[in-house]
Design a protein that fits this description.
six-stranded parallel sheet; 36 helices
């Protein structure tokens, strides 16, 4: 092939450079011309512009399925596929020549730009990326690069509902286009829809809807990237992947720029960005789009036009010929070639395609476009039927065609149905425009065009009905046409009249800005006109909004997209608060009822979801008797009961009743009856809100302050006495003196205490913290899980109902030595010692694992107390607190045996060591363990017990009765004697 660029001019540059406008001006300067365009939609637009310049009798429109051919028309507007292979016209122009690199249609563009020439002038219009390949293929070509007439700037990512007016949202599938248009209708009043598959009539009606200002948004495919002139200020990509006929792939920078360039027109700047689920563009990509710097096109798709029709095999081989010029690459099989491949497998086709004329006729039939987007095999079946008629009768069977046209001639149905019918009628419109295929082509051209127009009008009506809120669009248009004042409401709720800010619309409440002057009343009236429709439009959008658009805040306000629209108030049932709408009087009747009903549905759903365990038990129908009563109290108390408050009911529950209530997630703890699933930040926050609504507690001290501590995983916190104590319980904490402890942690504490009170002295090794089987000492494990100090521990245990007896550290050590000695005699030392060591190690490990990261270090009092250092002045050992469950008598005595002066000193001033003041709970200092350690004689023990009995003293802890005296040479007796010497 010998190619030349003499007489050819390439006008290259980005979008909005006026290339198409320049081509039209050059064409009308010649006496005849042909211009090829990539889309039917664009061909229709250029045809209209030429008709305005030279009259309709001078312009022909030729596409695959539409022909307007006035007698002796001087100018022809065509799709590239419909351009003639040869022409005598003085001027030829081909637009968007960069599509020569397209995998599906590129070979057609390549053929036209290489071979089709005008007698006087030939223009190739396209992107600057074509320069190098055109100069390589067409030596001598003249290249003119045109700069963009306005700037194109990146605006980042925005939600679809936050896009500015006069925006085009771009997607690459009909389903996505329709979904976005539906969203915009709900949120912003409506959108026009433009797809390449629409008929020109439907597309023009939709574009007019946008251009006339009835809607401010256009949702389209990349069809708008091919030269359509629209008043678009911003282009937002809702998708950046598309199916190119062979695979799904990301758009390259040049393709993105082609679409983004639709923003801005003439000298007006435009912007582009992303929306929806598309990630923000990288800086490098943004720079390339803004500066129009793209990789050059290196190869063009090519397919031989020197076809051999001598046989089907020869035709297929000629289609597979390779290009002889560098820079061209053989194109992948297109729709027509795929159809031919299928048809050569049909015996009824191969049997008749035996001459060059019939093979050529078959190839002509294969050019039928697949408008319906069906499978290649189904498309081949249709071509086979048409080809059989052409071979047998020389014409397509008109009865068959009439039946196919009749099936499409119905305007009922929805968008998808009408779109399918339009695709079907376009097939027969194409057939009617093929020369020699029909006996009466004019009749069928008029018939199919009439049906397509009716279907197009019906489709436009359905699109408008579905994607445009007519009432909103009409009122907006009337406001724009107001000769006196024009009002508008911004995305953020700002209300403007003639560009002047007059107030703020938040949710359904309008706040008028302070204004003065004689025109204030007129401005307010105009604002109210604008608000009347806005209220109804917002009501419709809220009624259709999903739960994700609504939120319940901790102040009791229901917010829609961030704006308050209602508040909650107390009702008879704590879990069913009343909803009070926050709306002006302009929201009336039907709309108000819809909004209120939607918010009530959201609130009920939110409560039943977040507080599902509580909601389930409140609705339980399988609970009976005491179980049902206990469940009712649990709901009334929002998921937490103090066990002491329902002790009688719990005791009366049989095992079957307990099981029936446990299956709802209720836990029967030592101190509480509660629902563990509610001890989380979200349920706790909602429970606190519901209680506060019922008890006017939103303004009480401490409201909402404890939820962050629960969220941070704190097991206990320093109690603030100024806070309302109920807030601790609602947040899952129990207020216990100086600290508040999480309820589930207290139940873990109960699990540590229980074995200490159940231990039987002399049977098994003494657990850490056990004393005599009836009392216990605080341990490091207890302090760790509580995150508390020993002083805090006293407050916590007292708050839980325990009472303390006070003994000195020496008494405790002596007594424990006796206990451990008895255990050692009962259990062989060789077995006991390792087991006890392992138990202590396990306990220490568990305590370290359970202790929270922020728990303060704490030392257990009692047997963990170390002896004073020998090098220092010995300090008075701290007394040891022995804890026991409180009794009713303790409560009646008002504070029990553990008095403050006993805890801090253990003895009154002037008391002798070992004497009491006569109150219950007082005890001698030495105790029986000391007596036995001194002389080891049982008679001394009995005598001392008798003396104490005579004085009326009561002792809370007595060592178990011994049948034989302790060996004075045993290690335990020696340890006691050593401690006695240190004391002296």
């Amino acid at each position: 092939m010998i190619l030349s660029g003499r007489g050819v001019t390439a006008v290259l540059g980005p979008t909005n450079t006026g290339k198409t406008h320049y081509a039209i001006e050059r064409m009308v300067a010649h006496d005849s011309g042909v211009i090829g365009l990539p889309l039917r939609l664009l061909a229709r637009e250029v045809y209209t512009r030429l008709v305005e310049k030279v009259g309709h009798h001078n312009v022909a429109l030729i596409t695959g399925e539409e022909k307007i051919t006035p007698h002796q028309a001087r100018y022809s507007v065509c799709t590239v596929e419909a351009m003639p292979r040869e022409t005598t016209a003085s001027f030829v122009a081909i637009d968007e020549v960069q599509l020569a690199g397209d995998l599906e249609r590129g070979h057609i563009f390549t053929d036209r730009l290489l071979h089709l020439r005008g007698r006087g002038e030939t223009l190739l219009l396209g992107a600057a990326t074509m320069r190098s390949i055109l100069e390589h293929l067409l030596p001598g070509i003249t290249v003119v690069e045109r700069p963009r007439m306005s700037q194109l700037l990146y605006a980042g990512s925005k939600k679809i509902t936050r896009l500015p007016n006069r925006s085009a949202i771009v997607a690459f599938s009909a389903d996505e286009v329709y979904a976005i248009a539906e969203l915009i209708r709900r949120q912003r009043g409506g959108a026009a829809v433009v797809l390449g598959a629409l008929s020109p009539r439907t597309r023009n009606a939709q574009v007019e809807l946008y251009q006339e200002g009835d809607v401010d948004y256009l949702v389209a495919t990349d069809a708008i990237g091919m030269g359509l002139n629209l008043d678009v200020d911003h282009v937002a990509f809702a998708q950046d992947r598309k199916f190119d006929g062979y695979q799904y792939r990301n758009l390259n920078p040049a393709e993105l720029a082609q679409v983004a360039g639709r923003a801005g027109r003439h000298l007006r700047d435009g912007s582009f960005g992303v929306t929806g689920r598309v990630d923000p563009f990288e800086d490098e990509l943004v720079h390339r789009i803004e500066s129009h710097e793209f990789d050059p096109v290196r190869v063009l798709q090519w397919r031989s036009k020197a076809l051999d029709f001598s046989s089907l095999k020869a035709l297929k081989m000629s289609l597979e010929a390779a290009p002889a010029v560098s820079g061209l690459v053989r194109a992948l099989p297109a729709v027509d070639q795929q159809a031919l491949e299928h048809l050569t497998r049909y015996s009824e086709v191969t049997d008749v395609a035996t001459t060059a004329e019939r093979v050529e006729k078959l190839w002509e039939a294969c050019a039928l476009p697949d408008y319906r987007r069906i499978t290649p095999a189904q498309h081949a079946d249709l071509i086979s039927t048409i080809y059989a008629d052409l071979v047998r009768d020389g014409r397509v069977n008109e009865d068959f065609m009439a039946e196919q046209v009749r099936r499409a001639d119905h305007t009922d149905g929805e968008i998808d149905t009408l779109s399918a019918r339009i695709a079907q009628i376009r097939t027969w419109t194409y057939v009617s425009n093929r020369p020699g295929w029909l006996a009466d082509p004019t009749h069928w051209q008029e018939k199919t065009r009439e049906i397509e127009d009716r279907l197009s009008d019906a489709l436009h009506e359905r699109l408008t009905k579905r994607f445009v809120d007519r009432r909103t669009s009409v009122l907006m248009k009337r406001l724009r046409e107001n000769a006196m004042l024009e009002a508008e409401i911004s995305v953020n709720g700002d209300v403007f009249v003639e560009g002047h800010h007059v107030g703020q619309l938040t949710g359904f409440r309008f706040t008028l800005a302070a204004g003065e002057g004689a025109d204030a009343k007129a401005v307010q009236g105009a604002a109210q006109k604008a608000l009347a429709l806005e209220y109804e439009a917002r009501a419709a959008r809220l009624h259709a909004a999903g739960n994700s658009d609504l939120a319940l805040s901790s102040d009791g306000l229901v917010r829609w997209l961030g704006d308050p629209v209602a508040r909650l108030s107390a009702s008879d049932h704590v879990m069913r608060p009343r909803v009070i709408l926050l709306a002006d009087e302009q929201l009336q009747a039907h709309a108000r009822e819809h909004v209120l009903a939607r918010i009530e549905r959201f609130v009920n759903h939110h409560i039943s979801t977040v507080l599902k365990p509580l909601d389930d038990i409140s609705r339980a129908e399988d609970l009976e008797g005491l179980a049902k009563g206990l469940a009712f109290q649990l709901v009334e108390n929002l998921g937490v009961l103090f066990r002491r408050d329902v002790a009688e009911e719990v005791k009366s529950l049989d095992q079957e009743s307990r099981a029936s209530i446990r299956k709802y997630g209720v836990r029967f703890g030592a101190y509480h009856i509660f629902l563990p699933a509610l001890l989380k930040p979200a349920p706790a926050e909602l429970i606190t809100l519901l209680w506060a609504l019922k008890n006017d507690g939103l303004d009480k001290a401490g409201y909402g302050e404890l939820i962050p501590m629960l969220a941070a995983g704190r097991t206990s916190v320093v109690a603030d006495p100024s806070f309302e104590r109920t807030f601790y319980k609602l947040a899952g904490f129990r207020y216990l003196g100086k600290r508040a402890v999480r309820i589930d942690i207290l139940e873990r504490l109960a699990d540590l205490i229980r074995p200490l009170l159940q231990w039987a002295p002399g049977t098994t090794p003494r657990p850490d913290g056990a004393y005599d089987g009836r009392r216990f000492m605080a341990t490091t494990s207890m302090l760790s899980i509580l995150g508390a100090t020993p002083d805090d521990m006293e407050e916590i245990l007292k708050g839980l109902g325990y009472r303390a007896d006070v003994v000195t550290a020496e008494e405790a050590a002596s007594f424990l030595a006796v206990q451990d000695g008895a255990t050692a005699e009962a259990v062989p030392a060789a077995e006991t010692a390792p087991e006890q060591g392992e138990a202590d190690a396990d306990a220490a490990t568990a305590a370290s694992e359970e202790a929270p990261a922020d728990a303060p270090a704490a030392d257990a009092a009692g047997e963990g107390a170390a002896a004073p250092a020998e090098s220092e002045e010995p300090a008075e050992p701290k007394p040891v607190l022995l804890w026991r469950p409180g009794t009713r008598q303790d409560n009646q005595r008002g504070g029990g045996r553990h008095q403050g002066d006993q805890r801090r000193g253990g003895q009154r001033h002037g008391e002798r060591h070992g004497q009491t003041d006569g109150r219950e709970g007082g005890r001698k200092g030495g105790g029986p363990a000391r007596a036995k350690a001194q002389d080891g004689k049982p008679s001394g023990q009995r005598k001392e017990r008798q003396d104490r009995h005579d004085r009326g003293a009561k002792f809370e802890a007595r060592p178990p009765r011994r049948e034989k005296p302790l060996d004075p040479d045993s290690p335990f007796a020696k340890l006691a004697a050593l401690k006695e010497q240190l004391k002296k």
